Amino acid sequence: MRNIPVDLSALTFVCVSAPRPKLVNQETGEVKVDRDGKTVFTVGLSAADAMGRVELVNVSVPGDQDVSIGQIVTPVGLVAFPWEQVIGGQKRWGVAYRASRVVVAGPVAVPDAPGSSSAAADVA
């Protein structure tokens, strides 16, 4: 299966769904583990670009991640990979995402709005 590296330089990610164990089988509750025996978690992220386009992606990561809803995060080593399968005679396909971990990003500078001045806030 081909892994496609994702260029993170033009994207901002926000955690929109707390990490939860990924299930192999929803009926039995069997939890997915990686080759090293670590539980695989799914973290829901929104990915926004400078044009304001937003995509929601679920990212699989080994082990629980110390992130929570609303935090700006960075998915380290993010890759996309196409998949397809036949279930009950119907073909399904899509793109899945995996990262080595998801970490809280540093503070993001928000530019002043045009025509505003930070000195105006000091005037009483």
Question: Which SSEs are present, and which pair or pack?
Answer:
Layout: E1 4-5, E2 12-21, E3 23-25, E4 30-31, E5 40-48, E6 54-62, E7 72-76, E8 79-87, E9 90-98, E10 101-104
Parallel strand pairs: 6-9
Antiparallel strand pairs: 1-8, 2-5, 2-7, 3-4, 5-6, 7-10, 8-9
Short description:
This protein is mostly beta strands.
Structural write-up:
This protein is mainly beta and 124 residues long. It has a single domain (4-107), classed as OB fold (Dihydrolipoamide Acetyltransferase, E2P), CATH 2.40.50.140. Helices cover 0% and strands 50% of the residues. The chain has an 8-stranded mixed β-sheet, with no helix packed on it. Strands 3-4 form a two-stranded antiparallel ribbon. The termini are far apart. Residues 119-124 have low confidence and may be disordered. This is Regulatory protein. It comes from Actinomadura verrucosospora.
